[in-house]
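Researcher: Re-running this chain for the archive, since the previous output was lost when a drive failed. Same request as before.
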Amino acid sequence: QQLRQAIEECKRVILALPEHSERQKDAVVRLIHLRLKLQELKDPGEDEPNIRVVLEHRFYKEKSKSVKQMCDKCSTIIWGLIQTWYTCTGCYYRCHSKCLPLVSKPCVRAKVSHQAEYQLSICPESGLDSQDYRCAECRAPVSLREAAPARRGAGGGGVSRCSMRYLALMVSRPVLKLREINPLLFNYVEELVEIR
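Model: Regenerated structure tokens:
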């Protein structure tokens, strides 16, 4: 209900703002995000009986009997021939049916639609000691021999599955606001002026 009210309010704001103004364009982008969020939150209806919604994941029951899958919750093999398992339609998070109620990470696609921005500062999070030198997702020990953990993705080292999916979803989203980051770039790069 709150999202529907926010959508209606956003429509009123768009109509009240001067046409083709930057504020109106920003309001249109906000309206699109609100509508996408509303679509994601809709509960599966009778036409989708195999969908289960958990923390904004939309899990569907798998029919594949593949044994090459790993459960993203407990990090063990999913034996497709004898175990029931689910996959999120948004971020492809996979888990056993027994792990479904234990899922604690929200859907990465939902995170991308809520917070479509890159972290531009290096190491804003707390240190590895607060995670007991383990991966925040799967709890596997983090090796400090290869590279500093903050540089692992850039240096070719592995990142958590959750981070990998987040980056894959973000790769084609236009989220960097160049006017805010460095407005002088428009004076030096002709292509940016054309795009703007």
